[in-house]
Amino acid sequence: MANQSWMCFFVCVAAMRADTASPAVTFSKDVLPVLQANCQSCHRPGQIAPMSLLTYQNARPWAKAMKAAVVAKKMPPWNADPRYGHFGNDRSLKQGDIDKIVAWADNGAPEGEAKDAPPPVKWPADGWQIQPDVIAKGPDYTVPAHPKNNVIEWTNIIMPSGFTKDTWITSIEVKPSEPSVTHHLCLQFIPHRPDVKYGVAEWVDKDRDESGNEKPHPGSGAKSFVTEQIRGVTVPLEVCYLPGIQAADYRPFGSGKLIPAGTDIIWQVHYTPNGNEVVDHPEVGFTVAKTEPMRRYISQNVAAPSDPEHFAIPPNDPNWEAPPGEITFMADVELVWLSPHMHLRGKDFNFRLQYPDGRVETILNVPHYDFNWQLGYELAEPMKIPKGTKMITGAHYDNSINNKFNPDPNRTVYDGNMTWEEMDSGFFGIIVDKSIDPTKVLKRPGNARAASGA
Questions:
Q1: Are residues 153 and 71 in the same domain?
Q2: Domain end marker among 96, 122, 148
Q3: Which of 3, 228, 256, 375 is disulfide-compatible with 168, CB 3.0–4.6 A?
Q4: Does 12 have pLDDT greater than 60?
Q5: Domain final position from 122, 156, 191
Q6: For the stretch 245-266, what's the b/e string if a residue is b when 16 or more beta carbons lie within 10 angstroms of its beta carbon?
Q7: Whether residue 331 sits in one domain with residue 218
Q8: How many angstroms separate the CA atoms of 208 and 149, rounded?
Q9: Are residues 158 and 35 in the same domain?
Q10: Which residues have CB under 8 Å from 144's CB, separation 6+?
């Protein structure tokens, strides 16, 4: 009788535990919503990530790898220090979402019931991040397998935009067909000229050593993401494709860019060979404003001095501090977007504002820069910046053997266009009233690079 009583007790306890146990974590109910909100923008066909995570069949083989990536907080990539700034496109996972992926992977990665799954996200077709209203073809470019010194110099190629009337555009996306060899694709807009020859590549052969490094010349610096002198005309960069970058979307801020009728596009292309000959077929997509926006979006950058007297990273230096970049706002503006750009030795990067009253505020700090994920950081709310404010950037570089990406820690590294050289540019986006002359918004010190945008 006693044994029966004990048996009843254990059965009752087990039943109570079963009633109170948490339901099993499944892909359909728990994991898929996390992937849709934070991962599928990159993990789908035509995007930068190496595998798709759109369906259970796609994701199941990667369950353990997904667990490892989110526990280490390597994915989704998000490198901003949470102590500074608030960003609307923050993709970093909450701890609860991390716990769901861990529990799912640890329990055999079950699919769950199809009825529990949210409907699929309707992503733009053909690998676009935006759904373009207008698509312009870029220049087809053959990337050789083994060019001399593995160097392909930056190349400018003019192509038509297709805009036959003045048009306000509200987002731009540059899309290569071969991202594995694409270092960057940047666009500049210029008025059409009757003598233009479309599709003709123009470049300058730099004075390089046997390793492909540009030889430094006192009093000069490589022009990295700067305004280019195209046939005697200074033309700012407007938008770029970089690894991991998001489309430039001005719609959240009720703003746009005006493209005049007859505009042509200068494609500034830069490829890094990977041992296989490929042909890139880039495109640029635009969304078009249905009504004229009240505010103008301006893309610009602030950069450190690039001449070799100021910018020279010593051999085996694990924490070289670059000279600061600086720019002054000559009108009241609203800041909406920030993005640092460095190369393989880039270690950390920050943006600060020095207000007219002398107060200094850090608005973005990236303590662990990653060249493979050159993210843009979109402010959650536009930040009002009064006239006379300075934007200052700071950066450190790791030219030591401890940097696993470092091509050669035993050489001095200068500013240059190639991935194995270095850059120091902080891109940003501001919005102003459309009546304001965009050429009179910013002032640069004499020793900094010329203006550019991305």
A1: no
A2: 122
A3: 256
A4: no
A5: 122
A6: bbbbbbeebebbbbbeeebbbb
A7: yes
A8: 9
A9: no
A10: 152, 273, 277
Number of domains in the chain: 2
Structure confidence at residue 15 (pLDDT): 45
What stretch of H or E contains 32?
helix 32-38
Question: What pairing do the DSSP bridges indicate for beta strands 295-303 and 255-259?
Answer: parallel
Bond before 191 cis per omega within 30 degrees: no
The answer as to whether 5 is a domain residue is no
Indicate whether 79 belongs to any domain: yes
Mean pLDDT, residues 343-366: 97
- Asked if residue 141 and residue 99 are part of one domain, the reply reads no
The residue among 418, 222, 390, 391 whose CA lies nearest residue 311 is: 222
Domain membership flag for residue 29 = yes
Whole-model pTM: value is 0.85
Cα dist. 78→101, 271, 366, 377, 424 in Å?
18, 25, 9, 9, 20
Give yes or no: residues 320 and 254 share one domain: yes
Half-sphere exposure of 403 (CA within 13 A, CB side): 28
Amino acid at 423: M
Does the residue 182 lie in any domain? yes
Is 118 in the same domain as 148?
A: no
If DSSP states are collapsed to H, E and C, what string results for 200-228? CEEECCCCECCCCCECCCCCCCCCCCCCE
CATH number at residue 400: 2.60.120.230
The burial class, CB within 10 Å (0-12 / 13-18 / 19+), for 145 is exposed
Tokens representing residue 391 in the block: 């934007």
Distance CA 279, CA 272 (A): 13
Each residue's pLDDT tens digit, 125-174: 888 999 999 999 999 999 999 888 788 999 999 999 999 999 999 999 99
Domain that holds residue 247: 127-443
Structure confidence at residue 218 (pLDDT): 64
Residues 6+ apart with CB under 8 A from 153: 203, 204, 205, 206, 417
Whether 108 and 180 map to the same domain: the answer is: no
**DSSP state, residue 103:** H
